[in-house]
Fold this protein.
Amino acid sequence: MKVAGSSISARGLTKVYGAGPSAFHALGPIDLDVAAGEFVSLIGPSGCGKSTTMLLVSGLEPPTAGDVVIDGRPLTKPLSDVGIVFQDHLLLEFRNAMDNVMLQQQIRGLDKATTAMTAAALFERLGLSGAEQRYPSQLSGGMRQRVSIARALVHQPPMLLMDEPFGALDAITRTQIRHDLELLWLETRKTVLFITHSIEEAIGLSDRVLVMSKSPGTIVEEIAINLPRPRPAHLGEYPEFSQYSKRIYEIFERLGIYNFSDTRTSSGGSMLGAPQ
Amino acid sequence: MTSTAAPLVEPSPTRWSKGRRIVAAVLSAVATPLLAVGVLLLAWEGAARFFDVPVWLLPKPSDFLVRIVVDWQLLAQNAAATSLTILMGFAIGVLVAVPLALALVVVPALERGLYPVIVFLNVMPKTVIGPILIVWFGISPMVSVLIVFLMCFFPVLVDAMSGFRAVDPRLHHITRSMGASGWQTFRYIQLPAAMPSIYAGMRIGIIKAIEGVIIAEFIASNAGLGFLIMRASSFMDMPLMFSGLIVTAVVALLFNGALTLFGRLLMPWAFASGRA
């Protein structure tokens, strides 16, 4: 398969917000390597610097220390050869779905007819047919996020950065959109950096999962996911899924993100009522 | 042919009830106010005749309604002059206020320096500038245009500023990753996003403009409805003054209506119906 993605390489990436006693050390230092065409997830607890990582990799925020190299070129300004999806769809409420996607064409000065065709194909592919003329306020949360994904892909970037893109969606929608994204990725093989706090999403989508610690976030473990694709909605079909999942839970427990020790007192062990 | 049971059923109940609803809506929207105004005018006419009120004190509706018909050319000419003044002052006001609002929001130093001056000018009654403007420009419609400009400038400025401030800063992540220029960001994101606020300011502004134009024409003009009413006053021509008053109200209504239509053109998304 032809690989169409960019590679990401970051060394010693660190972000500190503010200065002096009120400074907040948000991230790092971390080293990050994503090969061209690879699907990599960053998973970690809230506030561990996952989103900061994405802002640094996209060049939207400058790092306090360290540097990012995209396709061998050091990043010095916001990366434009990229599609970004945020947790919030960030659609323009004053543009209908198609016009939101076509914003890429207008701002980048792309050929209108070609982009419109790509957009139409993406709408079809993402189950958005018939929603072209609707405004974001007339769409469901899942559809808005699909439009947001279409917007991130319509200019056919070699890389996709996704910051908890399904975080605001309900579980049923999330499973479907995850599946659709995987199929779309299999067709194009863009490089994807996917940020999530869902273990299932990370294993369900990634080639590799990077597990992050609590703030200031560092990458503590790297897990290669060797599962056939496309992966089913119900990942429990794979015995390996529960092994991967268990490993991530164990790392989280070791890091103190989870505490699964039994804290019930011996006398009051039946708060929920013991079975007779 | 319909089924045999059909004739007992009303042919199309939904259509019928819809028709009734429309009739009811038209009745309540047009007929009821017209009826109320008619009753009021009749009562006025009757009372004025019964008590034999002299026309120089209070004209009867028949006096000034007939006067509108007789002097329609004079009234129309002056209404046109007033409308042109409103249009020019209002247009200049909006065209200056919107870019200035953006500049004040984007450049904090500019806001710190200029905003106190703007607040001072806003608080000051605009008509006190009238005599000064007369010295500068003489008795001319120019003075009225400037007063209208000042009247509607501030509400538009203040609302546009709050509109530009409320633009979600995260939208800049999207536009920066698209490589948008400053002009593109303004044209495609900031201006339409702030449009509901700017429009709200325009609605207040147009009312202020109409208020301002009449006062300006009282003191400093040789054309327009304000000037006509003032001249009629010096001749104790009460029916003409009342005619002018009614025509002024009609002009105000037309401007309000035009702005409502303009709002629909400007912000079609705000009027899109149906939510998923």
